[in-house]
Design brief:
The structure holds two protein chains of two kinds. Chain A is mostly helical. Chain A contains six helices and no strands. Helix content of chain B is 82%, strand content 0%. Chain B has one helix and no strands. Chain B has one helix at 9-50. The chains are: A mainly alpha, B mainly alpha. The A-B interface holds A 35, 39-40, 44, 49-51, 53-54, 57-58, 61, 96-97, 100, 103-104, 107-108, 111-112, 114-115, 214, 218, 221-222, 224-225, 228-229, 231-232, 235-236, 238-239, 242 and B 3-9, 11-12, 14-16, 18-19, 22-23, 25-27, 29-31, 33-34, 37-38, 40-41, 44-45, 47-48, 51.
Amino acid sequence: MSLWEYANPKKFIATADAVLPFVTVLAAAALVTGLVWGFFFTPDDFRQGSTVKIIYLHVPAAMMAINAWAMMLVTSLIWLIRRHHVSALAAKAAAPIGITFTLIALFTGAVWGQPMWGTWWAWDPRLTSFLILFLFYLGYVALWEAIENPDTAADLTAVLCLVGSVFAILSRYAVNFWNQGLHQGATFSVDREENIADVFWWPAVISMAGFVLLFVALVLIRTKTEIRARRLHALELRERMA
Amino acid sequence: MIPDLGKYAGTVLSAYGVSLLLLAAIIALSLWKSRAVKRKLDAAEARRSDG
């Protein structure tokens, strides 16, 4: 069996239909467990007080805002190299989900930053690159909507995605090599000494798994929709020409 | 039921409220668009097989 079998729209839809119920149930279970555990059953932080509860939304949303763009980059490259339509449509399908995660990360970051840093916003490397990533998301969706020919739209948005990837990478790694700004380094570390306490770690990891699974479920649903919309567009064109 | 969030109650509740609202919106929008497109495609396929 080859991965490229899923470039066939019918095969993709059949597979998506088969896995969606499992992914959806797992996503709901992980999200509810992570967020309820984090909100109701974790203690306040000795310095940040109850604002530490925002971590269960902010970190997973920020992680997935960047990962969604990474997924769009991979599928855009597949489109550019192998010209599989499902790949381009999957990238298109992921963008609004990425926008939602980016908005959540920006909003929760701002309301968390106000009491902790004394400001809603700072032109810090990570925050600024994240804002630019958000603008790239908006531009990406606008470009898809602005171009009537779907293949041309897929080509141009794929190039935009390549350019925007610089800011996706910056928003993850800017804090490591740009030693200025308010935002701290990575919250999660494989080094036990540097990592957050277990009491916060477990619900945060479950919530992150929930965000990943929710993203997968929504991408599958939205890609199916885009495949059907493309077929509908083709049928309507044929009807008009008949 | 709601834990004592102290002086940061507004901050934490607004973060959760807005985030959950945004998540609900993208889920609802995705499902609504999925059903609408499927309905239109089924109708177009039916017209095609009739014609």
